[in-house]
Design brief:
Elements lengths: L11 H4 L1 H6 L19 H18 L15 H4 L5 H8 L27 H13 L5 H30 L7 H6 L1 H6 L5 H16 L3 H12 L9 H11 L2 H23 L8 H15 L7 H9 L6 H22 L6 H15 L8 H11 L3 H25 L10 H27 L45 E4 L3 E4 L1
Antiparallel strand pairs: 1-2
Helix pairs in contact: 3-7, 5-7, 6-7, 7-10, 10-11, 11-13, 12-13, 12-16, 12-17, 16-17, 17-18, 17-20, 19-20
Membrane topology: Multi-pass membrane protein
Pfam family, one: GT87
Keywords: Cell membrane, Membrane, Transferase, Transmembrane, Transmembrane helix
Length: 496
């Protein structure tokens, strides 16, 4: 893989006033006589910062280590250190050696008969359980959290590396991911980082033109969490506009085959001693369909304000998702220049979390890498992160209020609803800015130096074939006035 010379790298401190101001804490922006090279390469610095911030996120959970996760304590809410990991270690039978999807969970342990996570996430949880040493129940639950945290740290490093490498000339944008406060606070709440890491590898592979590899990792990510499958819609749109159907077919086919290879062994076993496996495999999908509105969602706000239980929320959410996805499609085909893939990917995943029945605090992890790649502007990113941190505190304080008996120490419903509104508005604010960049390519910070789509892989600098409002193909043009680049065919190009 050919490296990019240091003098061609884009430095955030040279183009972003907030980044320049923040750099004063460590000595200010690098000068033009600063020596490049050495061990402090951008990717290494980004990875080290990620490790440091992840460790701080673990330290933030200290109040829960001893008693906060156990005995129904409200400490996990008042200190905002809640995590699903130790609870599900006992609640899903990992402490008893139950095998996910095969062994039924006794009713005495909760209301789930099988593990309610996709196959690869269940495998991740099982591997962590096998690595957890023996001991007392509480001690093992603590160790299980530490083992998972170590495995999730590897995922966080993969995410930081992939984001730093996806835009060849902008590795320092990875610092936004590494320094994101919501990333550190939510990284060990659940197992979402595993799917986010696989998705990040898929985007990196696509940016290098490896369409089959990208499809494989999309398939793996979709086998760990549902949301990565939605990336196929933005891929379809940009390939449609560029007329590059071969690339889309390669990615789609490899994604579908990979997902089937992972899931079919559990899907099709219907007879014999392994019969329960099919019901166990389907639990994630039936649970997702049957669950009511939950914390963080737009629909919960509507339900609480109107008193409507929202029994038809699946219909409402599906309609909003379909209409929003069609709007994203129209945006792609109408924009004066083909949008960058990560711009549409961010909009699609943001639409999904806003339209969903639940918007858990850790879902922000899905959006952070995409937001950085779509719009690496420090001010707007930090505004959004502030909203997410406020919601992170709001949800736990509200649960402390509702779960503390008659004491009601925490945030009442009106306060929680305010935090929820900020949570949704922060996401929509960033979406609006990305839409503006799509409609006004001259405002897109990535394209400011004349680039087309650095993360677009085989579509980078491809001409527009299908454009609403135009009847003939549009050549790819360098935004710099002194250069006109025209691409002929699929591989050759010239400069006029």
């Amino acid at each position: 893989m050919r490296s990019v010379r240091d003098d061609r790298l884009v430095r955030p401190t040279q183009e972003d006033e907030v980044a320049a101001a923040g750099s004063e804490l460590i000595g200010g922006p690098a000068g033009r006589r600063a020596l490049p090279g050495g061990w402090r390469t951008p990717v290494r610095v980004v990875v080290l910062v990620m490790i440091g911030m992840f460790a701080l996120g673990m330290v933030q959970k200290v109040p829960c280590y001893d008693h906060g996760w156990f005995f129904g304590a409200t400490t996990q809410y008042t200190h905002a250190c809640y995590s699903d990991i130790p609870h599900l270690f006992t609640g899903r039978g990992f402490d008893r050696g139950l095998i996910p999807y095969l062994d039924e969970i006794p009713r005495s342990m909760g209301d789930m008969d099988y593990l309610e996570y996709p196959v690869l996430t269940g495998a991740f949880m099982e591997v962590a359980a096998l690595l957890t040493p023996g001991g007392g129940a509480q001690h093992r639950a603590q160790l299980y959290w530490f083992v998972n945290s170590g495995m999730l740290l590897v995922c966080a490093v993969v995410i930081a590396f992939c984001v730093a490498r996806t835009h060849r000339r902008r590795p320092w944008d990875g610092l936004l991911v590494a320094l994101a406060p919501a990333f550190a606070l939510t990284a060990t709440i659940n197992w979402d980082l595993f799917a986010v890491a696989l998705t990040s590898v898929a985007l990196l592979a696509w940016s290098r033109g490896r369409t089959g590899t990208a499809g494989v990792f999309i398939g793996l990510a979709a086998a760990a969490k549902l949301y990565p499958v939605l990336l196929l819609w933005p891929l379809f749109l940009v390939c449609w506009r560029a007329g590059r159907w071969r690339e889309f077919r390669a990615t789609l086919s490899s994604a579908v085959v990979t997902w089937l290879v992972v899931n079919v062994p559990l899907m099709l076993v219907v007879d014999g001693p392994m019969a329960p496996i099919r019901a166990g495999w389907a639990k994630f999908y039936t649970f997702s369909h049957d669950r009511p509105v939950d914390y963080g969602s737009l629909w919960l706000l509507v339900s609480q304000r109107t008193g409507d239980p929202m029994d038809d929320v699946n219909v409402y959410a599906s309609v909003l998702m379909v209409v929003g996805s069609l709007a994203i499609g129209a945006l792609c085909l109408y924009a004066p220049r083909r949008p960058r893939l990560v711009q549409l990917a961010f909009l699609e995943i943001a639409l999904f979390v806003v339209a969903n029945k639940v918007y858990s605090p850790q879902y922000v992890l899905w959006l952070i890498p995409l937001a950085v790649l779509a719009r690496p502007r420090w001010r707007d990113f930090l505004v959004w992160q502030t909203c997410e941190v406020l919601y992170f505190l709001g949800i736990w304080f509200h649960l402390a209020y509702t779960g503390d008996g008659d004491k009601h120490q925490g945030l009442p419903q009106d306060g929680y609803q305010l935090a929820l509104v900020l949570h949704l508005l922060g996401t929509l604010y960033l979406c609006a800015l990305v839409v503006r960049d799509v409609l006004r390519p001259d405002r897109d910070v990535i394209r400011r130096d004349g680039s087309d789509d650095p993360s677009g892989g085989p579509l980078d600098r491809a001409p527009d074939i299908y454009v609403l409002g135009r009847t003939r193909p549009r050549e790819w043009r360098d935004e710099r006035p002194e250069t006109l680049r025209v691409q002929w065919g699929s591989g050759s190009g010239g400069t006029v």
